[in-house]
Design goal:
The protein is mainly β. It is built from 1 helix and 11 strands.
């Protein structure tokens, strides 16, 4: 877990899924759903390369059926720290043998979580390293 602090505010970010797990404002108030497994195990998952469930459990990509899981796979994969500063962290997920079985593309998905003067921001960047059209959906919860 990575913790960032700025002007009394605090943020926690998990490497698993690149997920923002907690945000407290400068007054110490928690401003994010902090998770309750009895209700729902997630907090704020990153959804890539699908949002929701795809028809028939996957998609035909270039003539081959690919079993893309509900909400994609990013939320359950380890990200690596690719850049970190005093008030931000950028986490990146790149293709693996496992992701290529589900989604046959070389890619980099980067998520930057930053503490700001009046809250936080999250930015996503998707790079296509395949050199051909790469369909995807990207979202947060």
């Amino acid at each position: 877990m990575i913790e960032l602090y700025k002007d009394g505010a605090r943020m926690k970010v998990a490497l698993l899924g690149g997920e923002l797990r907690a945000y407290q404002d400068a007054q110490g108030r928690e401003r994010l759903w902090c998770g309750d497994a009895a209700v729902w195990k997630g907090v704020s998952p990153v959804l890539f390369p699908a949002i929701g469930a795809l028809k028939d459990g996957g998609a035909a990509i270039e003539g081959t059926f690919c079993p893309v899981p509900r909400h994609g796979f990013a939320r359950e994969m380890p990200f690596r720290v690719s850049e970190q500063g005093e008030d931000f962290v950028t986490l990146t997920l790149s293709e693996t043998a496992e992701t290529k079985r589900l989604y046959p593309f070389a890619f980099a998905l980067s998520v930057t979580h930053r503490l700001c003067a009046d809250g936080f921001e999250t930015r996503f960047t998707v790079e296509n390293h395949t050199g051909r059209p790469m369909p995807f959906l990207l979202g947060g919860h």
